[in-house]
Amino acid sequence: MAAIWYFLRSTIGLKVVMAVSGFFLFGFLVEHMIGNLLFFLGPDLLNGYAELLHASQLFLWTARSVMILAAGFHATTALVLYLRQRAARPVGYRRTRSRTFSYAARTMKYTGPLVLVFVLFHLAHFTLGWQVTPAPFVEGDVYANVVASFQHTWVAVVYVVAVLLVGFHFIHGGHSLFESLGVRHPRFDGLIRTVTGGFAVAVTVGFVALPCAILFKLAGG
Amino acid sequence: MDLKANVPSGPIDTAWSRHKFEMKLVSPANKRKYNLIVVGSGLAGASAAASLAELGYEVRCFCYQDSPRRAHSIGAQGGINAAKNYANDGDSVFRLFYDTVKGGDFRAREANVYRLAEVSGNIIDQCVAQGVPFAREYSGYLANRSFGGAQVSRTFYARGQTGQQLLLGAYQALSRQIAAGKVTMYPRTEMLDLVLVDGKARGIVTRDLVSGKVESHAGDAVILATGGYGNVFFLSTNAKGSNVTAIWRAHKLGAGFANPCFTQIHPTCIPVSGDYQSKLTLMSESLRNDGRVWVPTKAGDNRKPRDIAEGDRDYYLERRYPAFGNLVPRDVASRAAKAVCDEGKGVGPGGRSVYLDFADAIKRLGEGGVRERYGNLFDMYERITAEDPYKGPMRIYPAVHYAMGGLWVDYNLMSTIPGLFVLGEANFSDHGANRLGASALMQGLADGYFVIPYTIGGYLASTKLAKVDREGQDFKRAEVEVNERTKRLLGNKGKRTAMSLHRELGKLLWENCGMARNAAGLRATAARIPELREEFWSQVIVPGSGSDLNQALEYAGRVADFMEFGEIMCLDALERSESCGCHYREEFQTEEGEAKRNDAEFAHVAVWEYRGPGQAERRHTEPLTFENVHLAQRSYK
Amino acid sequence: MNVVLMVWRQENRDTAGRLQRIEAKDISSEMSFLEMLDVVNERLILAGERPIAFDHDCREGICGSCGVVINGTAHGPRRGTTTCQLHMREFHDGQTIVIEPYRAKPFPVLRDLVVDRSALDRITAAGGFVSASTGSAPDGNAIPVAKPKAEAAMDAAACIGCGACVAACPNAAAMLFVGAKISHLGLLPQGQPERWMRAEAMVAAMDREGFGPCTNVTECAAVCPKEINLSVIARMNRDRMAAVFLVARRSPRGDTA
Does C100 sit within 8 Å of A93, measured CB to CB? Predict the structure, then answer.
């Protein structure tokens, strides 16, 4: 046990925590996206799916706990790592020119917290039922809530922007999680980057489809 | 000056074993009571410091670099010799011994060289165990190559970075002892004087190169592993910081300086490109395995190399030395390059270079084949010159590379000062008048891993050492002298930089005490150097203060010592009225222009004794007897 | 050619520094970058000013002493090249060249462009070795090493310890340096007995020195003059993870678990 704790506090251990928690969070996103896409198959399926998720309190809270833990670890570890990064270079350069530092990687420290803020808002909006838009929140009728919300341009825009941030976050986070776990080889690097990048795009598109469809009245009308 | 070599009597092949047995031992419990000082952290210094600490001694190790891993042993490219006979091609301890003595043109001490050959195999074993990534065959066994014209394949190598890998092995062993608290490492610390107490070496005075603090360190013995003095020529393949200071200070306190005129000129270096040139870059002489050296037959032929027809090219090494061709020893190849350039056939800016051509090799092996063997060297050439050696020939010229001369040591590697041991390039012992390729690494590690751990025990166990402490008057006096000197350098308000004076000294020596020497030139130079030294002390301008990081001050101090040392180099070259190995006196040559030795009068080591400021140094000799190797004229025809 | 240098000048570790503008006139494009600094320093000395302090030694790209950040890139614009082997032909007439020291908390600036990199030595001392005391070695050929393994070990061992990886990393991480040593020794049979201990100890030492974490942005490998491959970092990560379970720890009873 001591050995594990000792490991987890090391910079490499912290990165492993980031990678594993990130993996769970991304896995959840994929599941969430698939759920969202049920929207296009009609209210019954979507609402049925939501009901199914809530059928077992044990299952629901286990899943929620895992997600809360993953998000908690991901966020606190990110903070610890960020502070270590800052401390490691107290005086910066007057001029820097990077060769490989991608825009996605460079903005992790912004996309991460922004996504966190969004997630809190999102939970408030759709799970806790905050009155975000004039339309009343209907417990259990996911379909109606979604349609009512995304008819408002600003809501749809917030969601689309947030999803783009998530996708962007994953462009770097995707291959990075493999690398942190020690999976890296010149022969497979390209493959890993392509596959994770593809995932990032697919998930982004999958999520963006819903608000856009409602906003532009292509579905849910 | 007592030059007792302390070579064990009796047959040479068992001499080292007998000697090891006959030496007194320091008991394990007593070892930690001894404090040893090691100056230098190259192959010799690092291996010695690590090995001595493993034995239980308390060791302090000093280097001027910011890390012991950066000592200039790291620059060695080609490889390390060992008489393993893995290639089954007839190698043996005796053959390596024989080749080394012969290659050194019979100016080395037989017993030392034999021991070197004897422990050479252990070095490879030790380095492999440390994780040195030597080149391997597909079988997984160690690969060997023939190097520098050797007739057997006995050279072990790690790509073109053998020195680096061996040094990292020694550095890692040293690091382990540092972590264990057995070695205290002092990086960025320069030794500026030696301290004798009752005639024995008992400590050093150092300057912390960051804080400028001058302080003393007391110990029971001092080991100098401070490398060679090639930078006296200003331009050399040595690191910029390499210097003569440590051994020169020891010399001024009584350590005999042996054969200072023996400096090896390496034939395959990238030529000088301008006045601002700060150093010369060597390319491994393994290049001569496949490259062909040539110049245009006609002096002043300015055509592009590829436009010069075969018939208009002079492959002068192949012409003059049909048996060895491009693989003649370093001194022979260097002199031949100088000779053709002197005839006006040299190529490139200033006509001071010759072609090293891989066109035939590329035809034979393909560009890929050549890239596989020499890719890193070709890349380096391209980086420095911006010329592509796959498309046209490289240009090369000899450059100062290695100092065979150094402080005189006996069989135990102890100098004429009791308690002062000298290892590696800093001593004179094993290479005679010319060092064979891939033998420097071997000697540095032999001295550090396998000789000094035994012989220093013999000294400590048989010597009564009074207690000394660094507050003692001998130490304080030395510190005062060091501080005075610093003050003198800083107080000067002259008009010339140390670098410009160093350049002038270097040029003088290169022209008169370089690849070819003659009495008139040497005499004139020996007379000119004291004047230049005067000029140095009256004209040098050293900015800044002594109490912080001041690279200009460090450098000026080193140049000041070169200014003294250069003179003794010329005198030694002048007194040695023969040609041998690297030492080529134009007056002493055969009809074909080869070096002509004079064994009757000069089969000896010349050892110089310092006798005080303003006094001429006295030349002593240690006769060399050859009982196991037949004295013969070298011939590479 | 003429260039304008903007050089970091700092008296010592405790004082603040600033960029100083120095005009370098009549520079030959055939000079190495450090020879250009030599020329500038000679002129500064003759003008009674303090020359620029910078670390350098072998000037042939192997000792790892030199290294500054040139126009924002460690070791300057040419890939796979140390500062000492960089030549002025990589710059153009009239160019402004910003020269800064390596920046990292574990690399305090000692003066101008000189930084203290002894943190790297301490990491090596923590475990970057094979504990083979002199004299204890078996014959060199007793343990065969497959050629590809030996080659991969050599690739990693080529590290010159210059610290450019740390300088270039946006997080001032030393992962490439540490990974290179862990990989070099971890790939060889001689390094196996201490493999897990080494990974654990070296990573701990790296953290203790205050180097930052890795965010896999690969700047380190992009500036590495020896072009050490990023796979050494992955290997370090794996070895460090495995160390959790594989380091032989002595149980209270005295046997190893």
Answer: yes
Which of B72, B175, B497 lies nearest to residue C45, judging by beta carbons? B497
**DSSP annotation string for B270-292:** PPP-STT-----B--GGGGGT-E
Contact A11 C247 (CB under 8 A): no
| Domains along the sequence of chain C with CATH | 3-111 (3.10.20.30), 118-246 (1.10.1060.10)
The domain over range B12-262+404-461 is classified in CATH as 3.60.15.10: no
C68 part of contact set with chain A, CB < 8 Å = no
Which CATH number covers residue A20?
Answer: 1.20.1300
- Report the 10 Å Cβ neighbour count for B462: 10
Are residues B548 and C12, on separate chains, in Cβ contact within 8 Å? yes
**Distance, in angstroms, between C111 CA and closest chain B CA?**
7
CATH 1.20.58.100 residue ranges for chain B:
492-596
- ipTM over the 0.95 cut-off: yes
Pick among A77, A96, A176, A189 to test the C interface (most C CBs inside 10 A): A96
What is the fold of B266-399? Answer: Flavocytochrome C3; Chain A, domain 1 (3.90.700)
Q: Residue B35: is its pLDDT beyond 80?
A: yes
CATH node for B492-596: 1.20.58.100
Q: Where along chain B do the CATH 3.50.50.60 domains lie?
A: 12-262+404-461
Q: Return d(Cα B262, Cα B573) in angstroms, integer.
A: 8
Q: Is residue A126 part of a domain?
A: yes
Interface of C with A in 199-238 (CB under 8 A): 200, 203-204, 206-207, 210-219, 221-223, 229-231, 233-238
Q: Do B552 and C118 touch (CB under 8 A)?
A: no
What is the rounded distance in angstroms from the CA atom of residue A131 to the CA atom of residue A125? Answer: 7
Tens of pLDDT along B255-269? Answer: 999 999 999 999 999
Domain that holds residue A128: 2-90+101-215
Helical (H) or strand (E) element with B380: helix B359-385
Asked whether residue A207 is domain-assigned, the answer is yes
The DSSP call for residue C220 is H
Q: Is residue A167 part of a domain?
A: yes
Window C:169-188, CB contacts with B under 8 Å: 184-185, 188
What's the gap in Å between the CA of C213 and the closest CA on chain B?
24
Distance CA C84, CA C56 (A): 8
Contacts 24+ apart (CB under 8 A), B568-571: B568/B257, B568/B260, B568/B608, B568/B617, B569/B232, B569/B260, B569/B261, B569/B263, B569/B509, B569/B513, B570/B261, B570/B509, B570/B512, B570/B513, B570/B522, B570/B525, B570/B526, B570/B529, B571/B522, B571/B526, B571/B608, B571/B617, B571/B619
Six-digit token string for B358 = 């891989």
* Facing C38 at nearest CB: one of B50, B273, B276: B276
Contact C45, B497 (CB under 8 A): yes
Predicted confidence pLDDT, tens digits, chain C (257 residues): 999 999 999 999 999 999 999 999 999 999 999 999 999 999 999 999 999 999 999 999 999 999 999 999 999 999 999 999 999 999 999 999 999 999 999 999 999 999 999 999 999 999 999 999 999 999 999 999 999 999 999 999 999 999 999 999 999 999 999 999 999 999 999 999 999 999 999 999 999 999 999 999 999 999 999 999 999 999 999 999 999 999 877 655 555 54
| Total domains, chain A | 1
Q: Which two tokens stand for residue B391?
A: 């498309």
Helix (H, G, I), strand (E, B) or coil at B154: coil
Give catalytic residues of B, as residue numbers.
330
Residue B438 vs residues A158, B40, B552: alpha-carbon distances, Å: 70, 21, 34
For residue B571, give both structure tokens: 């005198």
Q: Which chains touch B (3 or more CB pairs under 8 A)?
A: C
Query: What confidence score (pLDDT) does residue A138 get?
Result: 84
